[in-house]
Amino acid sequence: MAYMLLPALLAVVFAAYLAYLFLWKKDSATLKSVLYPGLFFVAVWALLYYFVLK
Prior knowledge:
Layout: H1 5-25, H2 28-52
Helix pairs in contact: 1-2
């Protein structure tokens, strides 16, 4: 379960970036274009770590 640390950190960085886009820049178009690819990337990274490196 220690392998899940890096994907969790990536998720935190991603959430911070989304908060920056939403709260500071108020740019909903960029937020929408970043949200799904970012979630997909974090999910694939977590799956790779969980299934391949466990």
